[in-house]
């Protein structure tokens, strides 16, 4: 399970694989400002043990992938979508199952409609609609107040170059986004520490994704998604409250919803792996 440095477009992306290359490929797509470390190694290994070839990778500006100056990302939001295809190309994979968390779920939706020949299925975790919803759709609830407060000018950022301060802020943010079923403080600190120590420029990793130019909205709709879709959504998600997951399952043709009781806006914590892992394995078995 050695790390691989893959040439992808104008960047170099760091990836890691689990399992046998001949098994069905599962590409894990991370959330904004998070390196591949947030996909737990044991989670990846469990999927591989079930007969899947699992790939996780660092997005640009995270982990050991190409980093850009703070406040000056040399790419747009669209690059994070095409980078996923670039990782598959670099590994010689024609078609894969996409499993995305939050922003990664948005990438999965976009690829499902723009490159359906490359997408065997999508699994959307803690994800909102990245494509348009039916015109008569009911409005969905906004993020909880504690989440909105994080994105205001009044919320001071730590010195991201200070290892201790940065790690403690990530631990605090994980708790803020988490539900009643979440990582323990020790588990969260372990992930945050690994991510900090692996990341070329942690300040860039925590800021650049939030200021990317996104370009015009994708013209497709959720109803255009024609690949098998699994929705895994925490019942206590404070960023995309649970009705967002229900809407995805209702509006994407044939989608299946599996609630994660007590889980917030986060990578699936170990407490729900007994539900999440079999669901993904079953969904990616076709």
TrEMBL record:
Domain of life: Bacteria
SUPFAM superfamilies assigned: alpha/beta-Hydrolases
Pfam families to which the protein is assigned, alphabetical: Abhydrolase_1
InterPro entries according to UniProt: AB_hydrolase, AB_hydrolase_1, AB_hydrolase_fold
AB hydrolase-1 domain ranges (all copies): 24-266
Molecular function GO terms recorded: catalytic activity
Stated name of the protein: Pimeloyl-ACP methyl ester carboxylesterase
Native organism: Asanoa ishikariensis
UniProt lineage: Bacteria, Bacillati, Actinomycetota, Actinomycetes, Micromonosporales
